[in-house]
Amino acid sequence: MIEVHDLHKHFGGFHAVDGATLTIEKGSITGLIGPNGAGKTTLFNVIAGVLPPTSGRVIMDGEDITGLPPHELFHKGLLRTFQIAHEFSSMSCRENLMMVPSGQSGETLWNTWFGRKRIADEERALRAKADEVLEFLTIEHLADHKAGQVSGGQKKLLELGRTMMVDAKIVFLDEVGAGVNRTLLYTISDTIKRLNEERGYTFVVIEHDMDFIDMLCNPVICMAEGHVLAEGTLAEIKANPEVIEAYLGTGLKNKDKVGA
Ligand SMILES: Nc1ncnc2c1ncn2[C@@H]1O[C@H](COP(=O)(O)OP(=O)(O)OP(=O)(O)O)[C@@H](O)[C@H]1O
């Protein structure tokens, strides 16, 4: 469980996150919605240690994790997915997965000289794990394809796959469905559900696509102007006058997105 207490993130005089308080229940797939500029990504980045908060607290399973750097949160099982970095795009999908776990013996010179067998064993285990992940994602046929050459949706699956290389507990997904065709969107949503049901992952999903939120998320939290405006099922959120006002208030561009 993650508890966020009165979190603030200011950029100069601008309050991107302005007193956000929310709880993410263990085992949930929580949706985070809100008009453009509501502070969703900034909130993610503060929770995931990418940005330091101005003030406030983030508690994970009773432990204060406020401001911890991403690699420490990573070891605690809290991950934020990132797009496959350009430098990794010429590596195969399998190699991209094998790159994820840190602290491999092969990383130190000492081990390069004295631990060849151990390195070979670890590499075999990593390779087997990567292949198991590719199979779970039903993209085992892409194992030897360059990551930069697979489709946008398949790249998203690979991003999810990277979280599976390190037994993640809670995964933050920022617009994982953006620019993905409908069929792959169903595959991604199905994969998230399976990871949630079969492997106990908790997810927090930022998404503008309300169909995707509807398929996947309960509860849904709506942010506006840096704080939480409403929480409930998507149907409850859509019927909330403050939510409708927040979407309308940002101009016609966002009006249809909440479908209200
Ligand atoms: N590094 C930064 N410096 C200054 N302002 C920033 C910075 N990052 C974000 N902001 C501002 O903070 C506000 C919230 O941005 P954020 O990206 O968190 O919103 P969002 O809800 O994720 O929006 P969207 O749905 O459009 O992605 C925006 O007005 C944005 O311009």
UniProtKB/TrEMBL annotation:
Q: Which Pfam families match?
A: ABC_tran, BCA_ABC_TP_C
Which top-rank group of organisms is this from? Bacteria
Q: Which InterPro entries match?
A: AAA+_ATPase, ABC_AA/LPS_Transport, ABC_transporter-like_ATP-bd, ABC_transporter-like_CS, BCA_ABC_TP_C, P-loop_NTPase
Give the UniProt keywords, A-Z: ATP-binding, Nucleotide-binding, Transport
Gene Ontology cellular component? plasma membrane
Keyword Repressor (UniProt): no
Q: Name one GO molecular function term.
A: ATP binding
Q: What's the protein name?
A: Amino acid/amide ABC transporter ATP-binding protein 1, HAAT family
Ranges for domain ABC transporter: 2-250
Q: Does the keyword Transmembrane apply?
A: no
